[in-house]
Amino acid sequence: MNEYYLYGVAAMMYLTTCWTFSAVRWFHTCKQPKEHHRYIWPDRQLQCIFYLCVTLLLPYVIDPTNPAA
Fold first, then answer.
1. What pTM does this model have?
2. DSSP symbol at 30
3. What three-state secondary structure class fits 64?
4. Cα(9)–Cα(66) distance, integer angstroms
5. How many angstroms separate the CA atoms of 41 and 27, rounded?
6. At CB < 8 A and 24+ separation, what contacts does 17-24 make?
7. How large is the C-alpha radius of gyration of the chain?
8. What confidence tens digit (pLDDT) does each residue in 11-69 have?
9. Of the candidates 24, 29, 43, which has an alpha carbon nearest to the alpha carbon of residue 16?
10. Cα-Cα end-to-end distance for the chain
11. What's the CA gap between 66 and 8, in Å, rounded?
12. What are phi and psi of 2, to 5 degrees?
């Protein structure tokens, strides 16, 4: 086991955490009237996009020894 393996595992944990935060932020809103969701949480979708931006690390997670990743 080399250091690249540990870096890949750490990046996968970070990626999984961000995907989980994005899913929770997308699907969970407190109980409010449905017609006011965009008014009460206007940045909900933007937060999800920011959390999903780390998907760019996926090539590194798949092959951490590849210099192109």
1. 0.78
2. -
3. coil
4. 15
5. 12
6. 18/51, 18/52, 18/54, 19/51, 19/52, 19/55, 21/51, 22/47, 22/48, 22/51, 22/52
7. 16
8. 999 999 999 999 998 887 777 666 777 777 788 888 999 999 999 988 988 888 888 87
9. 24
10. 19
11. 11
12. -110, 180
Q: Give yes or no for a contact between 12 and 60, defined as CB atoms under 8 angstroms apart.
A: no
**Residues ≥6 apart with Cβ < 8 Å to 64:** 4, 5, 7, 8, 11
Q: In the structure encoding, which two tokens stand for residue 47, read together?
A: 């937060």
d(CA 51, CA 3) in angstroms, rounded, equals 26
Q: How far apart are CA 61 and CA 16, in angstroms?
A: 11
